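Input sequence (250 aa), recorded before submission:
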Amino acid sequence: MNQYRSDLHALAAAYALDALDAAERDDFAAHLPHCEDCRRDVAEFAATAARLAAATAQDPPPALKQRTMAAVDGVRQLPPQLPATGPARRVARVLKRKAVPLALAASVAAAVTFAGIAAWQHQESQDAQQQAQQAEQQLDEVSTVLAAPDARAVHGRATNGAFTTVVSSDRQNRAVFTVTGLPAPAQGTTYQLWLDHDGTMQPAGFVHADGTVPLDGDPADATAVGLTLEPTGGSPRPTTTPLLLLAMPA
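Predicted structure, token format:
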């Protein structure tokens, strides 16, 4: 019984991303009203997914709107909607109940779609295609960590006021870093991430603005995640006082 309850607690991230099968979703939904920790975890994972989608989404090019408006005259109108009765009304109620969890998964899918639109619209530009592919790969990596059954999160605030979250998964051996309210760095500098391995700071990538990024390197034996302001291009070792040193999720 205790093992079963522990398994339920581990489903918070997958539930927030609508990544559970029907039986697991029903079991977790029944458990959720009675567990404050799980309700908090679901809210935090949902917020992280929303920040990820917002940070990665791209505005469609102006030409897309022009083509869409030009094609309106050739699109057939839908028939009038009639009041739902009997089985149709029951189907509508089911769809309404599913709308909220599906929206979380849709936010991640929408970010991937915008990246695909960018690649399609600018296929003549290799740079744009590469950026779209990198964005899609990053979304896959981040989504895998967030949806992992053993995903755990910790939160912290950097000395510059930015709010941060680290989500890690032992099973995936990956971790991701989310930040909001990050001030623009001074000219000639960039924000660099670090993994603390027994007091040795190893470079773990960069974060340039609000959003979510995978952490480079192996988080398995890391004790903390650091954030510093470094010269553009980064440094092999921190050269400034850490803005953040956040213990890895336990």
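Checked by second reader. Residues 1-64+86-149 form one domain.
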